[in-house]
Amino acid sequence: MGIYPDLFFTFFKIGAFTFGGGWAMISIIEKEVVDKHKWLSKEEFLDALAISQSLPGILAVNISIMVGNKLRGTKGSIIATLGTVLPSFVLILLIAMFFSKSYNNPVIERIFKGIRPAVVALIVAPVLTTAKSARINIKNIWIPAGVALLIWLCGISPVYFVLAGGVGGIVYYRYIDKKRKHQ
């Protein structure tokens, strides 16, 4: 098979078999893109993840655009994006056509309640993997913990922390890390 069908079906599988949004998809995307197909290195994936979270839109779509673009430019981006969004589009269309009348059905409610614990596990797994890959340890755990607390308790927009992180990274790598390497 060529790269275009591989891109489409890989992201179609990701879009079809992950529930719970972006964070629930991260570990599956990483396994497919980094481990299985080796389209991105671990470092490239972490960079793509950081950029995808910083951009508006759906995380999986943003990553699919970046992977498709890296492999085959605009056409690759379109193919990967179609693979990601097509399962959700079809599912929502089917729900709108057939299940809209049964939304308050107790069986359907129980099914969705049963899915919730699995979604929580799908969210926790990539958080731990990403923390490990980002080299979060006992010395620097205060940064993400403090940011999470400030967002949660004070209602500060995450946008400010993303911008502060970008500025902090530029300052650190341009000045502090450069001075340390020259010593």
From TrEMBL:
<dbReference type="InterPro" id="IPR003370">
    <property type="entry name" value="Chromate_transpt"/>
</dbReference>
<keyword id="KW-1133">Transmembrane helix</keyword>
<keyword id="KW-0812">Transmembrane</keyword>
<feature type="transmembrane region" description="Helical">
    <location>
        <begin position="6"/>
        <end position="26"/>
    </location>
</feature>
<comment type="similarity">
    <text>Belongs to the chromate ion transporter (CHR) (TC 2.A.51) family.</text>
</comment>
<dbReference type="Pfam" id="PF02417">
    <property type="entry name" value="Chromate_transp"/>
</dbReference>
<keyword id="KW-1003">Cell membrane</keyword>
<feature type="transmembrane region" description="Helical">
    <location>
        <begin position="141"/>
        <end position="173"/>
    </location>
</feature>
<keyword id="KW-0472">Membrane</keyword>
<protein>
    <submittedName>
        <fullName>Chromate transporter</fullName>
    </submittedName>
</protein>
<dbReference type="InterPro" id="IPR052518">
    <property type="entry name" value="CHR_Transporter"/>
</dbReference>
<feature type="transmembrane region" description="Helical">
    <location>
        <begin position="78"/>
        <end position="99"/>
    </location>
</feature>
<feature type="transmembrane region" description="Helical">
    <location>
        <begin position="46"/>
        <end position="66"/>
    </location>
</feature>
